[in-house]
Amino acid sequence: MIGARKSAWPRPIFARHALKFVNSLYFSRPAISEAISLFLTLRVSVWGLSLNTRLSAMELDLGPNDKILEYPPTGDSRVDIYLSDLDRLHPGGWFNDRLIDLAMQLIISDLLVSSGRQSPSPTASNRACHVFGTYFYRRLFVPFIRLSLLSLNSASSLQAAYPGVKRWTKKVDIFSHEYLVIPICQSNHWFLVIVYQPARLVHFAGPLKSAKNQLPLLFVLDSMHLQHPEVPIIIKEYLISEALSKLNLTVECSADFETIYPKVPLQPPKSNDCGPYMLHFAKKFLSSLCESTASIMAQTANDWGSSDLPAVRSLLLERVLDLASVWLANRECK
Fold first, then answer.
1. Is the model more confident about 48 or about 224?
2. CA distance 72 to 66
3. Measured between alpha carbons, how far is residue 63 from residues 41, 43, 262, 302, 329 in Å?
4. What is d(CA 51, CA 42) in angstroms, rounded to the nearest whole number?
5. Residue that wins the pLDDT comparison between 61 and 132
6. To pair with 111 at 20 to 30 A between CA atoms, which of 38, 49, 205, 284?
7. β-strands 79-82, 67-71: how paired?
8. Interatomic CA distance for residues 119 and 12, integer angstroms
9. Roughly what angle, to the nearest 10 degrees, separates helices 154-161 and 135-148?
10. Is 26 exposed, middle or buried (0-12, 13-18, 19+ CB in 10 A)?
11. With a threshold of 0.85, does the pTM exceed it?
């Protein structure tokens, strides 16, 4: 663990300087926010520093299991970040579900704000795309595999697994979105699946059914260039179950989804960089939604902005520190 390393900066010196800074402030909300930001920055800059270092001037006593951020403050998609999560943002750290969920929300929010389509408020869904949480696919995959081992076919397995995720879209019509974004973790490896035009599947229901209809496309962005043949099966059966449950449409489709593996950059061997790479792929893909699928398929690894990859960790850490300092300051002022 990174947190177990010895600190190059003696703890008494850190505590004395931190307390001196904090005591010099007038405790307005901005001042407290600045003090907390300093504390968190020093905490992640000095490996091995006790997680229980106390800033007694404002009674801030944070341990590894203490919450430092809730984002967004309200809503069903809120993510809780804990102090121990910060160590995962250092080089070599493996990104957990909380960091991935937070980063995906920030990516969507930033893209909406930069496009001028929305005020700067976080969301996981808009007209162009809907982002699923990290546990979504897991809730489908685990029952699917278990039931498939019992010799059930894929459709029967997914129908049995569907109730576990049915409520995830109770406020969302996924067929009204052009893209569905699904972060997936299997065997501690993160990769991204993007479903293009899920509404195409609806055309295989009832009188709309036609042999000329196109199926949704699946993009699989994997920094280890692994193949995932089970993914299109699971996603297809999920969409069929969703159409029946939410739209009361019975979809009859035996064809497989076309699955595309864009030529994304490879992560370093034996590294824990699958999380940062996946987030980078998500940002690049979603910022280029106006491009055609043919253009995306023709891209090479160099087209994915590989020079930006080394900064993913530090930029996310800086963003978390900024948000955490404000959230903790608001909590201390209550």
1. 224
2. 18
3. 15, 11, 42, 42, 17
4. 11
5. 132
6. 38
7. antiparallel
8. 44
9. 130
10. exposed
11. no
